């Protein structure tokens, strides 16, 4: 039967294509090819959902090539002279792969295929403009550029087919929303064309299909070329995933010493390395670049050890005698490094590749026979996409292992694996109605024609599915904003939009909707090669001459930071410890359904234990339903067992537990990242308002931790949850966000896309976010910034449902949520997941790193301020501070040590009448002075460290130690903790 179906699918193609298929060795089509080629060959729009490696590219392009051959060879018709087909991918690296894969077909069928992206040379661009290829492989941003070029615009009139690869990736991003309007602009040039989307499995294929074809609600023929078919190949039934939390062995104890880490991490490294050794080619996915670097450095250490043992003739440890070659791949490595490791993996020179989401998409690295996911993948879609990279080239089941670290991490991975098998995939999070995208594309439409009537521009924009609900008043406000920012000229009498002096410059500076955040290029001074990039935030927080960090799995010492050139010069060192760069925007949010299933497992376990079952029996029962051995599950359940034995109420999907005392409180809520983030902002704002003080927060999918004033207790949090009207949640959140750094940062980025301010570059001192907010409140710029924060970080509707369920408490609804309290911190409340970095970075820095920290702090500047006379201040380096500072004016030893930019605290102390903020500053200054008066210069050193205030400085100073190195280790540990949690406290 499959063979007959395959013959039928290929029968829809012409003889030239069938001959080419035979030459290429295509005897039987893959599953998506069998289902999708017939409708595509008939010219229909289609969304093809299938795992990576199942021949999706050929699924789309064989019918397109066939149509191009047929059009070229049709009797009497003049041959097309322009571009007949576009193949759009989200990554330049995918463009390179597609060119390699499609070039053979082009040569065989006499069809010219070319690539166009940001790195394409001017010579190639001119050549494409003068002699357009038949098929152009490009990116969404390059499409924006070629739509406005006079020659390329003529070439685009011939477009009859557009293929969008990895459409699920674009659907969840603003650049995808921008592309949907770009396709409508292309439609104005070329007329209706066939649209083909290639996607991984998503939970709402109909939504993604509409995203692909547009809604055309103002088109009279909207039922025609806007129709589409969905072809879906089940992914869950094609994957075999097991979850494993490795046991610690004797080998791991030895290995921990070699790797300067703990035994748990050593067991993870050993287990993954053993899995790689058992297979021919393994992808090792991690969730952050930090984890990739830290894990990669361990593998390189072991490979070097094995090479030395083999070279020296010494016996290596059992199981590691042969070097296992594992390299790194992520987006902050240079293009040359990425291409090198891709080619080496593809050729078989590498056994494994540690990678982030950079390898989720269809970059061709040859056949993969196993996938390791290190830590919970956080989402069902991500697990299917990653594990789906294995096995398909031989139509085999994709095999994967999720290596976890117990507790929440393991239970979450189990829930995701079960949901993947049941095809319970998350929906695509489409950016609906992003106003800065509209602003960008209005300017694009003006660039296309030189001038356009506002009505025609509005109809073009709203034919794109994400903007179908954009109102005319909203559109008019955006146009007026653009006119006011001189990005176009609005003729009020005719409603014609025309180019202005700023149109051209703005448009080409804003081809992309990706936020423009500065990165520093990292250069190895020994080889003069670029090894990667660092986000500006990491450079500002940590990078200084002499400091060490990990990149490409190797250790580097910074020799120079060039601010003007945005360049960091480094040299390699054999250092066993270093800081792992903290790249921005990498946290993968855990969806509410996944977190809720973890909550349900907890509830089920608690009920079984209360009924007299044993932990081992419970683990055995769960092992029959979830893909893990009983030992792995038993380890994961230990915090639940401890919690039940201590007599605490267990937080589940139907019970929130508020716990803690003093200044630390926690709300245990198994609702996922976005709901918990929303709850956290609501609780922090309202509890803080009642207490008259700020409340700090830290969020994970299962608990929210708060730093609160001493007078706040669990009852305050309970009261907010029980009394907040769910209908007013949006209004409360708007107020809570108004002064947040998240909104100010987003507002600055959105304002740049509207042309309201120069492009914002985070990290170069304070931008004046308050002034910007005040100036733009009530404009489309502010409206879009607020919408984006709500869309990306929060889940208002789901959180309103939680509040309603709490307030019903099951009395009027079946899905009521109980509130419970615990007067102390509980096993589950304190069992939060470690970040991907923390459990891989050594606990103690070595002596060289400690010396670097000491020198850096000694060279930092500090304000000395006398609180007795308040007349004397002096800014000096820490190394020049006396062992017991005193005021030269009055002789007092009440000297505060302040940050060198903290002139506001000096002014606050001197002020006769103080507001609340000045009172807080004054109090901190007096606490600082008390520490300096008691502990002298040691207090000044602690206070000069980054993110160490008087409270933490006192803890560091009062700790008993054997030597000074331990003091600086504690300072460094506190600095790292501040850097990790800074976004929550800002």
UniProtKB/TrEMBL annotation:
GO terms for biological process: DNA repair. InterPro entries: ATP-dep_Helicase, DEAD/DEAH_box_helicase_dom, DNA/RNA_helicase_DEAH_CS, Helicase_ATP-bd, Helicase_C-like, Lhr-like, Lhr-like_DEAD/DEAH_assoc, Lhr_WH_dom. The lineage of its organism: Archaea, Methanobacteriati, Methanobacteriota, Stenosarchaea group, Halobacteria. Residues 911-933 are annotated as: Disordered. This is DEAD/DEAH box helicase. Keywords: ATP-binding, DNA damage, DNA repair, DNA-binding, Helicase, Hydrolase, Isomerase, Nucleotide-binding. PANTHER family: ATP-DEPENDENT HELICASE LHR-RELATED (PTHR47962:SF5), ATP-DEPENDENT HELICASE LHR-RELATED-RELATED (PTHR47962). GO terms for molecular function: ATP binding; catalytic activity, acting on DNA; DNA binding; helicase activity; hydrolase activity. Residues 911-926 have a biased composition (Basic and acidic residues). Residues 271-436 form the Helicase C-terminal domain. Belongs to the Lhr helicase family. Lhr-Core subfamily. Residues 37-207 form the Helicase ATP-binding domain. It comes from the Archaea.
